[in-house]
Amino acid sequence: MAYNFISCSDGSFLPRQDLRGWLPPQHLCWQVLKVVGELDLSEFLRSYRADGQGAAAYPPQVLLALVLYCYCKGVRSSRRIEAACLDDVGCRIITGNQHIDHATVARFLRRHRDGMKALFVQVLALCAQRGLVDLAAVAVDGSPMQAAAARSTNRSLHALETMIADGEAEVDQLMGDMDAPAAAEDSTWHTAAGSCLRRLSRLGDRLARARMARDKLHERVLPSAGEIRIKVEAAERMVARAVQRLADVTAAQQQRLADYARRSLQDQAAGRRRATGRPPVAIEAKTKVVRQQARLARAQAGLHHALNPRPIPSAAARASLTDPASRLMLGKHGGYVQGYNVQIACSRNQILLAIELHDNPSDTTALVPVIRRAQHNCATAGLTADVEAWLADSGYASTANFTALADLPLLVSLTKEYDQTRATTPRSQDVPAGHRDMAARLASTEGKQLYARRGALVEPGFAQLFQRFGRRLHHRGTSDVDAEIKLLGIVHNLNKIFRHDARPKAA
Predict the structure, then answer these.
(1) Inter-residue contact 217 to 319 (CB < 8 Å)
(2) For the Transposase InsH N-terminal domain, which residue ranges apply (predicted)?
């Protein structure tokens, strides 16, 4: 059996079968089709039935080529892609003159989120095969992108709790109204019941979004995995010390009781009475033992809290009702935007080695995940060479990052950008202890020369992304937005491939 795909064969609508005369060989349409033919789409095909049963679907390679072609031209809206299938010759060639509607395009992107993420590494491998990836230096940077949500939809924890309580009370009231008995022929009751059902549907959607926003506020105040591990290790050490101290004082008191019992037996054998003095108190009544038991209980409670942190969001914390995963963060050109922090790792010629979402307006905790993801992508794409220098600006400077990446040739600015190339260096006593090794590395001639490449590597990468796609995201939720930015990264790297393939080859 075979897949039940709609036929999108070339040329069914043309006066002749050969389509190559409609567009020149160097046109973007043919470049996209060629690259899609080099990709492994097994991840996409896995979600289709291979027994030929079910309704016919468009082939995933056709939809993927259509999406990549339109994105390369800056067309990202599914409705505009639908319109392009009518008036863009490249789209008509890709689809075989099929009019693909916007809902099909939107469902394809949502259905194949994981496939799009895996496709990023395949395109990076194609860049590597063409010799476009240079790992002499890799720069990491982040920039906000505006979410598909307005700032006015942000609510505090108190407002969300009030909204949830009021909504639940209204749902109970509506359910009670619908349960009221009525005659079957009473048209007024049926009209009111229909209105209640519509209201219940809207309330259910609003309650679901309010609960998601409330949960997101609690999730954001949770410490990171590294912070939890550090706190758990410290709490375990305190518990171990408390256990040891309790064992020591208990053993000492047991020894006193045993000594007293031995002396009492000796006195009785010798015919002496009360010569051994006042007997020691019982173990459970000994002050030191009780104090150490209380200390152990506090240490165990601290360990429980470290293992199960439940901090309370501050009164200033806000979450969006429209897209709870988005954050209020400083805009690139001033002010605040409701958006996502997008992180990229760029090599020479702005080839993206990684493009990731970071759930924090601050870049500090993004450095380790982005570098590890870039390393994973390079290894998967067959790039075995070591990166000679990882470069990042002062927004990533922290002792935790320097410790976690101590095995890498890392250069992270500790001051403003222009200060790194100056001849003068800060005094060692002005630099925190955890930053002194990095300061010495940056102060060397080689360190200054390497760090001077940071801006030229990564800043044009963001400029090219935003020039083609703008700063606004179209999807909502972490998973959908992550797949969306992966698609932007795929198209960005594909354009590097297209320009490389279009260059005249040396004789």
Answers:
(1) yes
(2) 18-111
Q: Which amino acid is at 248?
A: D
Q: Helices 60-72 and 28-38: crossing angle, nearest 10°?
A: 140
Region of 383 please: left (phi>0), alpha (psi -120 to 50) or beta.
Answer: beta
On whether the CB atoms of residues 458 and 140 are closer than 8 A, the answer is yes
3-state SS class at 390: strand
Task: Give the contacts of 396 (CB within 8 A, at least 6 positions apart).
Answer: 140, 363, 364, 366, 367, 412
Q: Give the number of C-alpha atoms closer than 13 A to the C-alpha of residue 277, restricted to the C-beta side.
A: 6
User: What are residue 358's phi and psi, to 5 degrees?
Assistant: -125, 125
Say how far apart CA 450 and CA 455 lie, in whole Å. 11
Which residues in 97-115 are b (16+ Cβ under 10 Å) and which e?
Answer: bbebeeebbbebbeebbeb
Q: How far apart are CA 481 and CA 12, in angstroms?
A: 37
Closest CA to 246 of 190, 206, 295: 295
Running DSSP on this structure, what letter comes out for residue 8? Answer: -
Domain ranges of the chain: 1-111, 138-149+327-486, 152-220, 225-307
Read off the amino acid at residue 176: G
- CA nearest to 315, candidates 145, 132, 473, 160: 160
What SS3 class is residue 60?
helix
DSSP string, 296-324: HHHHHHHHHHHHS--PPPPTT--EESS-T
Element of type H or E holding 144: strand 138-146
Residue 318 contacts residue 300 (beta carbons within 8 Å): no
Please state the pTM of the whole predicted model: 0.77
3-state DSSP call for residue 135? coil
Crossing angle of the two packed helices 78-87 and 60-72, in degrees rounded to 10: 100
Q: What gap in Å lies between CA 67 and CA 77, rounded to an integer?
A: 10
